[in-house]
Design brief:
Elements (H helix, E strand, L loop, with lengths): L1 H10 L4 E7 L6 H20 L4 E13 L3 E11 L6 H24 L9 H15 L5 E10 L2 E11 H20 L3 E13 L9 E7 L8 E5 L2 H13 L7 E12 L2 E15 L7 E2 L1
Parallel strand pairs: 6-11, 8-10
Antiparallel strand pairs: 1-3, 1-4, 2-3, 4-5, 6-7, 6-9, 7-8, 9-10
Length: 287
């Protein structure tokens, strides 16, 4: 039975992740909880990226010992295929997890955001380090250990201290500020001019094939995205029905400026306020 197998796994685990918090001051409860939940979150994510294991993993607390805060955590995952030795896979994965954990915290300590990091990852590693960062003289150690003939053998380990945790916090804070500064921003009642138009309907929330110029944002023409059918209808009516050249019309609009990093890459049109005549002798393309 699954329950029996799980009982055996927890009673005699193939590998234990041991988290040791050496604190010199009392740890605030949310920071204490975050030190453990961040491990569980990251471990589940690492399992999802392993084709030899199932998509879910659970971490159990086996024992919390006195002195420093020492917790033995048992990661339990199932093999994706019956032919795979579950214990061997779990040991190897736990070792890889500790090494990856060390690599990510080391990069953050050195001011580098690991490749592919998301806001969720930033939150995870804030939770992982905040208890140590807020202590004047503390450290955290993560170990992957196995038991052979009743003896504990550390297979991988990583330790970080208060100054390193504070460096991690500075890196993460700076990245949050960078993301906020580069977030898609709204520009209201700005002048938009077409440089390429299309009489055909465009899918909502996808690039339309049209390109426009908004000098207030950048002197480069960018793709246009319609945020709603209503905003598209207003534009298409002018393109299809107006007697004048569309390129001699200016549109007073609200847009979201979409970015890739710090570079604007497209406009999402959210509202059309007015259509005005402009003088423009430049050549433009229509389809």
């Amino acid at each position: 039975m699954v329950t029996d197998a799980l009982d055996v796994e927890v009673e005699n685990p193939p590998v234990v992740l041991t988290l040791v918090l050496n604190n010199s001051e009392p740890i605030e409860l949310s920071a204490f909880v975050g030190a453990f939940t961040s491990l569980a979150t990251e471990y589940r994510k690492s399992v999802r990226g392993n084709d030899d294991l199932e998509n879910e993993a659970t971490i159990y607390v086996k024992e919390v010992r006195s002195g420093s805060i020492i917790a033995d955590l048992i990661p339990v995952v199932a093999p994706a295929l019956p032919i795979i030795a579950s214990h061997t896979e779990q040991v190897g994965h736990a070792i890889d997890f500790v090494l990856k954990w060390a690599d990510r915290i080391t990069k953050l300590r050195d001011g580098v955001i690991p490749s592919g990091f998301t806001r969720s990852d930033l939150k995870t590693f804030t939770d992982a380090t905040v208890a140590i960062a807020n202590d004047r003289n503390a450290s955290a150690r993560l170990e992957a250990a196995t038991f052979e003939d009743g003896r504990r053998q550390v297979r991988a380990a990583f330790i970080f201290t208060t100054p390193e945790a504070q460096s991690v916090a500075k890196t993460i804070d700076a990245e949050y500020r960078r993301l906020e500064a580069q977030a898609d921003r709204a520009v209201e009642r700005t002048l938009m001019i077409f440089t390429r138009s299309d009489v055909n309907d465009a899918p909502t929330d996808k690039r339309s094939g049209e390109r426009v110029l908004i000098s207030e944002v950048t002197d480069k023409e960018l793709p246009l995205i319609y945020a709603s059918g209503l905003s598209e209808q207003r534009i298409k009516h002018v393109i299809r029905e107006a007697d004048e050249n569309i390129f001699k019309k200016g549109f007073v609009v609200d847009v979201l400026v979409l970015h890739r990093g710090s570079r604007p890459i497209a406009y999402k049109l959210t509202d059309v306020h007015d259509v005005i005549d402009i003088d423009d002798d430049d050549g433009h393309e229509t389809s």
